[in-house]
Design brief:
The structure is a single chain. The chain is an all-beta fold. It has one helix at 98-101, and strands spanning 4-6, 15-18, 21-31, 39-46, 52-53, 56-58, 62-64, 68-79, 82-87, 93-97, 113-119, 122-127, 131-139, 152-157, 162-166, 174-178, 184-190. It folds into three domains: 4-64, Roll (SH3 type barrels); 68-127, Nucleic acid-binding proteins (OB fold (Dihydrolipoamide Acetyltransferase, E2P), Beta Barrel), CATH 2.40.50.140; 131-190, OB fold (Dihydrolipoamide Acetyltransferase, E2P) (Beta Barrel). The longest helix has 4 residues, at 98-101. It is flat, with a radius of gyration of 21 Å. The N and C termini lie far apart (54 Å).
Amino acid sequence: MAGFVDTSEFRNGLKIEIDGEPFVIEYFQHVKPGKGSAFVRTKIRSLISGRMLEPTMKSGDKVGLPDIEQKDMEYLYSSGDEYYFMEKKTFEQTFITEKVLGESKNFLKENTQVEVLYFNGKAISVGLPNSVDLKVTKCDPGVRGDTVSGAMKPATMETGFVVNVPLFINEGDVLKIDTREGGKYLTRVSTAG
């Protein structure tokens, strides 16, 4: 543990440690009822498993700060269910399993710059850029004259991820995909050809 923090210092995004597990505060609210002592309602998400908890703490309680380190790294390749990353300064390599990566694996292509979060010296999660450019590898062709406003079709990206795209998208197009909202299509970056 890297120290302690009082509930009065809580803020969204603060990383805390409870029962030896690192969490990030998603939401908190200080409550001062008419009777009784003040308390803090929180919603916290585990940085390891992603599970959500909603503990209530007394005002003035102290919680631990986790021993967390963040490193800028580059995604190299995957082998089986292991995804390999390299630190840009030291060329040190580490891997993260597919289970730990979760949905993040859908947006990783070679040379993607990411932030790898370490807890007690072990890689636990990957912070992706807000958007990534991915090439369409499989997609039904758009039918001429099919111009229904807002109509979408599925397209398979180079990472194997399937995203709904507008009808005018073709195989070989490069698309900008939002990594924050589960992979929404944002715009076409370039066309096939």
